[in-house]
Amino acid sequence: MTDIEIAHKTKLKKISKIAKKLKYKNKIINYGTYKAKLPLKYGKKHGKLILVTAINPTKLGIGKTTVSIGLADAINKLGKKVCLALREPSLGPVFGIKGGATGGGYSQIAPMEDINLHFNGDFHAVTSANNLLCSMIDNHIYQGNELGIDCEKILFHRCIDLNDRALRQVTVAEGGKNGVPRHEEFTITAASEIMSIMCLCTDFNDLKKRLGNIMVALNYKGEPVYAKDLKAEDGMAILLKDAIMPNLVQTLSHTPALVHMGPFANIAHGCNSIIATKMAQSYSDYVVTEAGFGADLGAEKFFDIKCRIGNILPNAVVIVVTIGALKLHGGVPFEQLANPNPKAVKIGLENLYAHINTIFNEFKLPFIVAINKYKTDTYDELEIIQSELDKSDITFVVCDVYSKEKIGTECLAKKVLEICDYNNHFKYLYDIDSTIKSKIKEIATRVYGAKGVKFTDNANSQIDFLVKKHLDKLPVVIAKTQYSLSDDSKFLNRPKNFYITITDIQIKKGAGFIVAVAGNMLLMPGLNKTPNVINMRIDNNFNIEGLI
């Protein structure tokens, strides 16, 4: 059966019962029978936090969300009080190449169509708040430009929650009476600063403060202009008043899940909201969360940005690996990953070792490797990875979270609970008060394994500006390809003797971080030649097929 067929055959519990299971005693806001918003009321617990990360994935992902859901279900089955804290799907991947983000097989959150498509309107609220600010910028210029905004120095851009390469570079206000014509560029909503603000704010007052601190442009004197100068923060907050509340859903096994916000990890910081994570911790003994793509992207940003801003302490890490991804890093073309190749598996293990080094040696956290088993995996391939990990004394579990039997997930859960009690020596990778270049170099050399970092003239100029304006003492998000530890998507496995090239530096003052763009990374993806959307169908009864 397909994922959507499995989801349809599962009888869900009313969301009020899931809230009671979580012992959330306040009134929930129902969005139908199986979804709800939770007003920001915290419980009294302080659950341990388990992060699920991965190696560099294939273009179809690596099953990190599926493993997260299967792990939470297994912890629940062991009689422990557990809650998931996950990101919301973006319509870009849903209609593009990767599909939805609700897990797979018998490890799913549900209702999967609702979560994957317009989930409770959160992304639309983010998009509307973002574009309201953009319209206020252009209207201010049209109405006389009292703030002296330089039209060639506008830093805040429009967004949409779709992959649309035609919107990467556009011209707005053409026609003579529509304002001042200027260049504009769209980002995908998941990469917008509003999305990051929603993930990193700690309450509604903090949300409004961060919205006001968005640097929208420079004036003719080269001084920053902020959203609060346009008096835009309350208007944006009005649009976001419902979206700031986490969404409560359930797994197919009725484990509670708080699903809230969804920044990408390659072009944003890749973690669900601090509010949802801390609320989940306050109502459960264990929280399973995930951070996008490999440990070089999502996990590093989870530790250095989310944990730092939210004062969150991670207790254990699960590193997800698949035979297919190992073969890709071992030199096998994507189209041939289903073919057995134990030799390539062994070669590709170097990519896994790089991510283990990041988690264990750099961030000082206990970890376990979860081998996410696929039906195409052969005995010889599994034997190679198991024997090699045994030689290195690395703890691992082979698990099949996708199948109905969920083989290995209980063993994974027991080992994860065990390492949650280990002594915790977690530390950040860099000092927040060090220079921008120093922070970037720390990430590039210690996490990516780069020999060094090169900065273009444009990047150097932007760094000089931030230093001059005293805006340099912030954490750094590196926007980089998810497929490689380097900034070249074709440079796979564990590359050596390479440099990271930083081509642009962007300030996200409202979110509270600096973005360093590596290589030719784009903030607006495009659709592939045969996107998922062309295989999707809906009948007159609104039954959907082809949603993955």
> How many H/I helical runs?
17
CATH architecture verdict of the domain at 122-240: 2-Layer Sandwich
Q: Major β-sheet, in short?
A: 12 strands, mixed
The CATH superfamily of the domain at 122-240 appears as Domain 2, N(10)-formyltetrahydrofolate synthetase
| CATH topology category name of the domain at 122-240 | Domain 2, N(10)-formyltetrahydrofolate synthetase
Write the layout of secondary structure elements.
Elements: H1 3-8, H2 15-21, E1 29-30, E2 36-37, E3 48-54, H3 64-77, E4 82-86, H4 91-95, E5 103-104, E6 107-110, H5 112-116, H6 122-142, E7 149-154, E8 159-160, E9 170-172, E10 182-184, E11 187-188, H7 193-200, H8 204-212, E12 215-219, E13 224-226, H9 233-240, E14 247-251, E15 256-259, H10 274-282, E16 286-290, H11 295-310, E17 316-321, H12 323-329, H13 342-362, E18 367-372, H14 379-391, E19 396-399, H15 409-420, H16 436-446, E20 452-455, H17 457-468, E21 476-479, E22 499-508, E23 513-518, E24 537-538, E25 544-545
Parallel strand pairs: 3-16, 3-17, 4-15, 4-16, 8-11, 17-18, 18-19, 20-22, 21-23
Antiparallel strand pairs: 1-2, 2-14, 5-6, 6-14, 7-12, 9-10, 12-13, 14-15, 22-23, 24-25
Describe, in plain words, how this protein is organized in 3D.
The chain is 34% helix and 19% strand. The chain has 548 residues and is an alpha/beta fold. Among the domains are: 122-240, Domain 2, N(10)-formyltetrahydrofolate synthetase (2-Layer Sandwich); 315-422, Rossmann fold (3-Layer(aba) Sandwich), CATH 3.40.50.300; 436-518, Roll (Formyltetrahydrofolate synthetase, domain 3), CATH 3.10.410.10. The longest helix is centred in the first third of the chain and has 21 residues, at 122-142. The radius of gyration is 23 Å and the shape is globular.
